[in-house]
């Protein structure tokens, strides 16, 4: 699978996914209108893969931005690859399709291109995104992920989504799905945190061996949402090794971090709400890192996670107690 020169990758269900995606997660203090504007800019710049989620609570705005760009003739619906995710309070099989239908209604679209299980950590069903008990502890739910997966397969068969996959799964959780009796469709991808400080080389090798695309979120580690990330975490884009390689190529450290992923066969999401940065993040197909550059960046790995989901560390499906 050569993502180096190609702008898209063939998934194991025969569909194609653009290897560079635009992320739409925003902190609570970001106005939703800003997300809509940024999405339109991203489409104008050339992004065709839009990564979103019910949990981000801005699908109306993102959907409106996409529809406006279709209406003004910039793109057709089939040019856009739209990903949404099943939130963890909807992992019970009977809640899966209604959850996707709710996203579609918010978006004003007939189908999504990719529907992912956002996280293996089931929480109590209901309207609250992060339900807690009287003591402020999150209320876990007990769901067999294989049953959730079977419900996603039905959404694909119903034409509500073209492809299905997972996010934040470790290799054992992927195997649980892959070895499921009566499996109809394999996950096409596993979207996980991945950047030079957490390069996921073992999980990447596992996914490649199963023809599952690894998709990197937090690839620039620049979204420092205090809700999920320790404010004392290192700044990836200040990393001297990345800065030196960037200088050598006349690029930014962010472009180098994105290019690194493409050259190792990882699809990558880039998120920014400023026009200059959105444009910059798309300029990653016209230069190439040398084998020495790649080796130097691989040497930065320290298995450091910006997002640890510490609220669910006791959950039976907590994904990060495994090495990969």
TrEMBL record:
Substrate binds at residue 118. Belongs to the aldo/keto reductase family. Coiled coil: none annotated. Residues 20-301 form the NADP-dependent oxidoreductase domain. Pfam families: Aldo_ket_red. The active site is at 56 (proton donor). One of its GO terms (molecular function) is oxidoreductase activity. The keyword Oxidoreductase applies. The record marks 85 as: Lowers pKa of active site Tyr. InterPro entries: AKR, AKR1C, Aldo/ket_reductase_CS, NAD(P)_OxRdtase_dom_sf, NADP_OxRdtase_dom. This is Prostaglandin F synthase 1-like. CDD domains: AKR_AKR1C1-35 (cd19108). One of its GO terms (biological process) is alcohol metabolic process. The keyword Methyltransferase does not apply. Keywords: NADP, Oxidoreductase. It comes from the Eukaryota.
